[in-house]
Amino acid sequence: MVDLDRLKSRTRADYPYILEYRTRWADNDMYQHMNNSIYNFLYDSVINTYLIEHCGLRPASSAQYGMVVHSHNDYFASISFPAIAELALRVNKLGKSSVTYEIALFEKGDDKVRSVGEFIQVWVDRETARPNAATGMNSEVRRGLERIMVDNGRASKL
């Protein structure tokens, strides 16, 4: 069961990697806040930005890629255009071929967390779309993910 009070108390200090995103008018829905589908788009974007910048991922040519097998999001407050979102990323669990990410969305200039999501990826070989039972995920990817893995609930800054 998800501990919503624990998630609502998240701060930027709980996350070692932060990426800014300037919201767009098109991100708003008819209720004048960012549409739920945009959150998943942003979560996927911050994960892949981190993988490209810090884990050696080359989307067009890497022998492995992370396939999302689970995602969910808990919403606490809305954000809307023209706000700047800060996407905060950490790794909560790292297996042989899987990784569990936690992503929080903050509005720049406001300490209140707006949402917290979870993505689970399984790293698969490009040719088979299956995990490599012998080697697991690529060692460069693993080293990069270990840098943002939480330790006793806290992560060190990059």
From TrEMBL:
<comment type="similarity">
    <text>Belongs to the 4-hydroxybenzoyl-CoA thioesterase family.</text>
</comment>
<dbReference type="InterPro" id="IPR050563">
    <property type="entry name" value="4-hydroxybenzoyl-CoA_TE"/>
</dbReference>
<dbReference type="GO" id="GO:0047617">
    <property type="term" value="F:fatty acyl-CoA hydrolase activity"/>
</dbReference>
<dbReference type="Pfam" id="PF13279">
    <property type="entry name" value="4HBT_2"/>
</dbReference>
<keyword id="KW-0378">Hydrolase</keyword>
<protein>
    <submittedName>
        <fullName>HotDog domain-containing protein</fullName>
    </submittedName>
</protein>
<dbReference type="InterPro" id="IPR029069">
    <property type="entry name" value="HotDog_dom_sf"/>
</dbReference>
